[in-house]
Design a protein that fits this description.
Elements lengths: L1 H16 L17 E12 L2 E11 L2 E6 L9 E4 L4 E4 L1 E6 L37 H4 L4 H10 L1 E6 L6 E9 L6 H4 E11 L14 H19 L8 H8 L5 E4 L3 H13 L5 E3 L8 H6 L4 E4 L5 E2 L4 H4 L4 H9 L3 H7 L4 E4 L8 H11 L4 H8 L1 H6 L16 E4 L10 E5 L17 E7 L2 E8 L6 E6 L2 E10 L2 E8 L2 E8 L5 E7 L5 E10 L8 H5 L25 E9 L6 E10 L2 E6 L8 E4 L4 E4 L1 E6 L28 H8 L2 E6 L7 E4 L1 E4 L6 H4 L7 E5 L21 H24 L7 H10 L4 E6 L2 H13 L6 E4 L7 H7 L2 E4 L17 H7 L4 E3 L10 H10 L5 H6 L3 H6 L17 E4 L10 E6 L2 E5 H27 L4 E2 L15
Parallel strand pairs: 1-4, 1-5, 6-7, 9-10, 10-11, 11-12, 12-14, 13-42, 25-28, 25-29, 30-31, 34-35, 35-36, 36-37, 37-38
Antiparallel strand pairs: 1-2, 2-3, 5-15, 7-8, 8-9, 15-16, 17-18, 17-24, 18-19, 19-20, 20-21, 21-22, 22-23, 23-24, 25-26, 26-27, 29-39, 31-33, 32-34, 39-40, 40-41
Helix pairs in contact: 5-6, 10-26, 18-19, 18-20
């Protein structure tokens, strides 16, 4: 019988949705009457266009008309919705519905893959714009049912695999149709991300900056290809060019990557729609400046279980804040007039969507904005005016509700998709809630029925004793199974009258008799605290960055007068006693005695020392990535793309008097990526830290790392594998860059290559090399290669055998940036000596002391002091190695590195002699703004303690109220070094 019913149902479905020009051999070819008129409803045509007591007329899956005065055809089915509301069904603009998660192919080896595996496509497998989601799509009826129950009528789905992912499709969630009808748009958008494809093991890119460089080069190559310049056919580039006009949807996943994605888009004139991460509130002004529309997940985290105070101490304050602040993200976006859609993406369970949406509304999200974010905004993103509204001509995708769609008490009855009804809760379901006296088998029970629609359930007790029972209510039938002692009784009744329910009871032995329940009144309503209901939950203030040591506002330039200090100028070893320093407009304005300035902030320098800010020539803090190891040359990548302004090591560095650093690429390859030179402006965004008109630098490397000596047995196939091979890599790339540059200058058409552009800048002496180096022979080799191509190496960093060839370094004109006393930490460092810096200095080489370490960098003043012991340098000579000398190596000595009138006001006030282990940086000033103040630091620590206590109390309250919690988690920061993967 079930098979017959299934076949009949299938026949109805197939005949209803068969293409009109297809022949029919299974019966007569006739169409059903599918004209419906919904009357007397409150109709939301759009979130802002509402018709009271209106009529919605639909036919053949489309809206025919809507309004108060609609002519209803005679053949229409008229459905009276008096007291009910109609809304457009929701649209999810970012989904993977119906598409299996891509899996890696099994059976592959562990060796890296450097070349593309796809033939006839782009040189990188992670560029896959040719992928068509329709070819991978299989309608998921179970998932569709779940989404329909949440109010969704259409989803925009795609293959979530690769950096360029191909086109998506817009699908109606119509379980009664076929793909021929429910695929509303077969090319609904072009998808991108920063994540590699699971279908390829090709190594490049291994980093975020590599992904960004790859995107840039792909766009350049697509343009070159479109102009007919390529000699080969490239199916990936053809697809990319063919999909340029589609909506461009970029899954970035968090505000830092949001900004990075937008940066790429701006460079190529593309306005991405950005899939965010839910933390956009942390830099809302930056987010607004992108001018992008966002797709926002609402996967708010649960409170942490802080009942164990020892475990609670593991939780970072930033994570506690995220729990408190995330639900306000949609509201903050709306208040800043940033357009956004909401998505089920990132939810572990789709059913969490409605509860999280309710939470966002509780945290201030306007209901009209919420409705726009689920209807008209996603429709606009997809450039599709047939979904997300109920205007004439749109798809008949709509919801029928008992009232306000976002009210917790509202029942969603039906979700119509393409004119087909999907029942969520029966509209004719009786309300049987209330208190009853139930009588069966000579016993009486107190019964309370609560809930709504099909979810009405019964609870039984006698006196204060709860009776075990299970119940269900569907299609007017009430079923209750109760256990009293060892006896089970099954109760069944078709409810005709709520006042008196009568039915059949079946006992353990199968005997039947009558039971009845008499209505005695309304169920007790849960007590509500109206005051709490009206109050928006407290959201703690965001700081910049949004961690405990962040600033409530960005520090501002001040007029500062430091009086009567000992000034180490770092200019010709000059020391000025009892001297004043005046700072105005971010510059050192005057140096002298008895200075005055109206309105200036006065700092008493008596007994204190004033120096230029420390400069770290070699650092790996403040970045989200350090190595792009996918190729032996990655000159196309830049650390500027991945500056991380949230790194707490920035704050720790300014607490140690550091004001500027060069953030270097690592040493994974002979030719690494470009540097970022930044000022440690704690609280600024990434762009605000970069030097204006910064000198151009790049990281090269020699030694064990670049030939993969210490990478394991599986990493032995990338060239070079020997030090001889390293030399050939340099010669090959510089020769190619030379030829590339010549062709570019000739005026001939040329394919723009970011990597060769960068190397040509070196040949043209517009970009400088900082080279990771240890062994004398290799250092000699690279100087000779440079001279062969008529340029100089700027800096050898580490340079622990510099003392062996200081004369040759001096002759070449290269500087040395080294450690004070690191040696013997790996084989190629065995010949290092602590007198290295002094020997190079005495040879006339510009020598700097660097850190290459997040911990050491905040104590560079003490590292400099070691040179007095190891080499007998004077205090001023030693201090120069962390101030003016690194400024010279970075070509910034005309702007910073010393106390001189007209230079940037990068100044540190020390409690005592800066070279003493007992001295502390009391104030660190960058561009005339105080970024570290030791007294305010103490205040911040007290504030952190108070804030943690407050958040812990809020989480305890959440748990006591029955809210979900998660186990405490410790956030571990990854520290980068030269060899970090």
């Amino acid at each position: 019988m079930k098979k017959i019913l299934f076949l009949l149902l299938s026949l109805c479905i197939s005949s209803s949705f068969a293409q009109e020009y297809f022949p029919t051999n299974t019966g007569v070819k006739s169409s059903k009457n599918n004209v419906y008129a919904f009357t007397n409803a409150t109709i939301y045509v759009t979130p802002t266009q509402v018709v009271k007591k209106g009529i919605l007329l639909i036919k053949d899956g489309k809206v025919v008309s809507v309004g108060k005065s609609v002519t209803i055809p005679n053949e229409a089915h008229v459905i009276n919705l008096d007291g009910k509301s109609i809304y457009p069904s929701f649209v999810d603009a970012y989904s993977t519905f119906g598409i299996a998660k891509p899996k890696r192919e099994s059976g592959r080896g562990k060796r890296p893959q450097y070349d593309a595996g796809r033939k006839g496509y782009y040189w990188n497998d992670h560029i896959r714009p040719d992928v068509d989601a329709a070819a991978e799509f299989n309608f998921d009826a179970k998932k569709a049912k779940e989404l329909l129950s949440l109010g969704f009528g259409a989803v925009n789905t795609h293959v979530a695999d690769g950096i360029m992912r191909g086109n998506g499709i817009l699908v109606a969630l119509n379980p009664n149709s076929s793909d021929a009808y429910r695929i509303l748009d077969k090319e609904s958008g072009n998808y991108l991300s920063f994540s590699k494809s699971a279908k390829s093991r090709q190594s490049y890119p291994t980093s975020r900056m590599g992904a960004m460089a790859l995107l840039r080069q792909t766009y350049l190559d697509a343009d070159w290809y479109a102009k007919g310049n390529a000699k080969n056919t490239d199916l990936a580039l053809e697809a990319l060019n063919n999909k340029k006009e589609l909506p461009q949807i970029f899954n970035a996943g968090g505000y830092l990557d949001n900004m990075r994605a937008d940066k790429i888009g701006d460079e190529f004139g593309i306005q991405y729609t950005i899939v965010g991460g839910g933390n956009e509130y942390e830099r809302i002004n930056d987010i607004k400046a992108t001018n992008a529309t966002y797709i926002i997940p609402i996967n708010f985290r649960n409170a942490y279980d802080v009942s164990n105070p020892f475990l609670a101490n593991k939780i970072a304050l930033s994570d506690m804040r995220s729990w408190n602040q995330e639900p306000a993200n949609p509201s903050i976006l709306a208040k800043n007039n940033i357009p956004f859609a909401l998505t089920t993406y990132k939810l572990k369970k789709a059913k969490e969507f409605n509860s999280n949406l309710q939470k966002a509304i509780t945290y201030g999200l306007d209901k009209t904005t919420a409705l726009e974010a689920l209807t008209t905004v996603p429709a606009k993103i997809l450039k599709n005016d047939k979904v997300g509204n109920l205007k004439a001509g749109s798809y008949a995708n709509f919801l029928i509700t008992s009232g306000d769609i976002f009210d917790k008490q509202t029942t969603l009855y039906e979700n119509w998709v393409q004119g087909d009804k999907n029942t969520i809760n029966p509209m004719d379901s009786k309300d049987i809630t209330g208190k009853y006296t139930l009588t069966v088998n000579g016993k009486s029970y107190d019964m309370t029925i609560t809930g709504k629609g099909a979810k009405q359930t019964a609870a039984l007790k006698t006196g204060d004793k709860k009776i075990n029972s299970k119940s269900s209510f569907s299609n007017g039938w009430l079923h209750i199974t109760l256990k009293d002692g060892d006896n089970y009784t099954r109760l069944t009744a078709l409810v005709q009258n709520k006042q008196q329910i009568t039915g059949t009871a079946t006992d353990n032995d199968g005997n039947e008799n009558t039971w009845n329940a008499t209505y005695t009144g309304k169920a007790d309503a849960k007590k509500k605290d109206n005051k709490k209901k009206e109050t928006t939950p407290e959201v703690l203030a965001v700081t910049y960055p949004n961690i405990g040591l962040g600033n409530p506002t960005a520090p501002q330039k001040e007029t500062i007068l430091i009086k009567n200090a000992t000034v180490w100028t770092s200019e010709n070893n000059e020391v000025l006693n009892n001297t004043d320093v005046l700072i105005t407009n971010g510059k050192i304005a005057k140096i002298g005695t008895n200075l005055s300035s109206r309105g200036a902030t006065i700092i008493d320098g008596t007994g204190k020392y004033v120096t230029a800010g420390i400069i770290d020539e070699h650092s790996h803090i403040a970045t989200s990535a350090v190595n792009e190891s996918g190729h032996n040359s990655t000159a196309e990548v830049t650390i500027e793309d991945v500056i991380n302004p949230n790194d707490v090591n920035i704050y720790r560095n300014i607490a140690g008097g550091v004001t500027s650093i060069q953030v270097l690429h690592g040493s994974a390859n002979p030719i690494g990526g470009r540097s970022a030179i930044i000022k440690l402006k704690w609280g600024e965004n990434a762009d605000g830290m970069l030097y204006n008109n910064t000198p151009k630098f790049i990281k090269f490397a020699l030694g064990e790392n670049v030939k993969q000596s210490n990478w394991g047995d599986m990493n032995t196939i990338r060239f070079p594998q020997t030090r001889m091979g390293v030399e050939q890599v340099y010669i090959d790339y510089f020769q190619r860059a030379k030829e590339y540059d010549a062709k570019k200058k000739s005026g001939q058409p040329y394919r723009k290559d970011i990597e060769l552009e960068t190397l040509a800048e070196i040949i043209n002496k517009k970009r400088f090399i900082s080279c990771h180096s240890y062994v004398q022979s290799e250092i000699n080799m690279l100087m000779k290669v440079a001279e062969q191509f008529n340029f100089n190496i700027n800096t050898f960093t580490h340079i622990l055998e510099g003392y062996k060839l200081a004369d040759k370094m001096k002759e070449h004109g290269v500087g040395g940036s080294t450690f004070a006393d690191w040696w013997a930490y790996k084989y190629e460092v065995n010949d290092a000596i602590p007198y290295n810096a002094a020997i190079m200095h005495n040879q006339g080489i510009t020598v700097a002391i660097n850190s290459d370490d997040a911990e050491m960098s905040r104590r560079l003043n003490q590292e400099a002091a070691k040179l007095i012991k190891y080499g007998d340098l004077s205090e001023q000579e030693a201090w120069a190695t962390v101030t003016i000398n690194p400024a010279k190596l970075l070509h910034l000595n005309d702007r910073t590195g010393s106390i001189k009138e007209g230079k940037d006001a990068d100044v540190v006030v020390w409690s005592g002699n800066p070279l003493s282990i007992y001295s502390k940086a009391e104030k660190t000033i960058i561009d005339g703004a105080v970024y570290f103040d030791i007294e305010k630091d103490l205040e911040k620590r007290k504030a952190i303690k108070a804030e943690r206590a407050k958040l812990i109390n809020m989480m305890l309250q959440e748990k006591i109220k029955g809210g979900k919690t998660q186990a405490p988690k410790k956030k571990t920061q990854k520290l980068f070094h030269c060899d970090t993967e």
